[in-house]
Amino acid sequence: QVQLVESGGGLVQAGGSLRLSCAASGRTFSSYVMGWFRQAPGKEREFVARVNWGGGSTYYADYADSVKGRFTISRDNAKNTLYLQMNTLKPEDTAVYFCVADPAYYGSNWNEYDYWGQGTQVTVSS
After folding, report:
1. Torsion angle defined by CA atoms of residues 106, 109, 113 and 119, in that order, rounded to the nearest 10 degrees
2. Considering the chain, what is the average pLDDT of its residues?
3. What is the pLDDT of residue 67?
């Protein structure tokens, strides 16, 4: 019922910035948990960031320690779009970034999320 399409990846030098977008179509709700995972070559898929509804107009964001202070997750419910602003990028940020969504799950286990995008490649050169 939900399709997610990521965009915004590319090649950037260390210290640079990129903004990833995840456009959602189908049946989505503002209460859905949405987030980002990434997978580097030879590495396991890892949690990056997520945002969830806390009731009313309150939303909470959470980040992996490796990206805290550098990445910012946000969502535009009117546009059904999730964003990941990535600043001060490092070579270790190089990975395929996946957008995820789930109607109920809130956590860091990638296999618990119901919906996944195809991913967008982010490459950070040193």
Report:
1. 120
2. 93
3. 98
